[in-house]
Amino acid sequence: MQLQQGDTVYQSVKGIPEGAKGIERKQGAVVIAEGEMTGHAHRIFDADAFLYELNGKRYLKTTKDIQVLHEEHNPITIPTGVYEIGQVREKDWLTGMVAPVVD
C-alpha cells in the first residue's frame, strides 16, 4: 500500500530494518519532513507513532491508525503498520533530469 501527502510518500514495508535508530520527537511531535521553502512540516502528534532512520532512509511505525498533519494539505490517516518514507520526484522530460519535489 502507498499513501501520499503533498511531497511525502508512505510505502508499506514488512518491518523496521535492523540497525535503524529511533529519531526523537520535536516539541512532542514526530516530524516526518520539514518544508525547505516554507518551514511547514508533516507532523504526527499521536503517541503511537515512531520514526526511525537507517542510511538516510526514514521509517514510520504505528501501533494504531494515526493522522499526519501539514499546514498546506488535508490530514491523511496512516493505518497501523510500518512504512518507508519517500519524497515525490519530478522528471523534466526535455532534459531527462529528475529532482525531488520541494514543498
What features would you describe in this structure?
Helix content is 0%, strand content 56%. With 103 residues, it is an all-beta fold. The chain has one domain (2-100). The chain is globular, with a radius of gyration of 14 Å.
Give the tags.
mainly beta, two-stranded antiparallel sheet, 12 strands, single chain, 103 residues
Query: Low-confidence parts lasting 5 or more residues at pLDDT below 50?
Result: none
Distance between the termini: 23 Å
- What does the radius of gyration come to? 14 Å
Strand order of the largest sheet: 1-2-10-7-6-3
Order of helices and strands: EEEEEEEEEEEE
Shape from CA axes? globular
Number of helices: 0
Count of DSSP strands: 12
Strand fraction: over 45%
The biggest sheet amounts to:
6 strands, antiparallel
Question: What is the count of distinct domains?
Answer: 1
Oligomer: single chain
Question: What's the helical proportion of residues?
Answer: under 10%
Structural class: mainly beta
Q: Give average pLDDT, whole number.
A: 86
Summarize the SSE layout with pairings:
Blueprint: E1 2-5, E2 8-13, E3 21-23, E4 30-34, E5 41-44, E6 49-54, E7 57-62, E8 66-70, E9 73-78, E10 81-87, E11 89-91, E12 98-100
Antiparallel strand pairs: 1-2, 2-10, 3-6, 4-5, 6-7, 7-10, 8-9, 11-12
